[in-house]
Amino acid sequence: MSPAERPVIELGRPGDEGLPDNEAVIAALSAPTPGPMAQRLLLLHFTGRRTGRAFTIPVGAHSLDDNLVLATSGTWRHNFAGGADAEITWLGERRAARLELVTEPVRVANSYLRLIRLYGPAAQRRLDLTINSDGPPTTADLRDAVERYGLSLIDVRLLTPGPSAPAEAAAPERTRA
Matching InterPro entries, A to Z (predicted)? Predict the structure, then answer.
């Protein structure tokens, strides 16, 4: 596919082959003092709705309007349609949470656009996307990616007190998605 034929947003980034595997990330984030990685990642612990199997996966933690959200295209997201209880390990603490898959495509696209603007050049790495344009993508580009790849947003409501949202993600922007 020529560069002109490629969509503006694609999943994944070239060069990801050198990143640590999930087991190494899970081990690091499970430590009592997980280090700087824990500012951007958390562990999500949940039981699959259909299989009943227990899962632990590393997921990017993001803050929009001082609310914790997860941005993903992983098929595991469907476990949170309509809301479900789970636990997260974040900043060295395991806590109960209620997660709900956001089903409004416009809100998802607008939220991704806000995160891309917020993170600047680091957005592709933080959101596991390739942006094939010289400038930022448009809302239409992100709506296309929501439909094409299943880009999704999951709202996280913590059920027990603990750490606040990552400071670098919360300060710069205060508009609603």
Answer: Split_barrel_FMN-bd
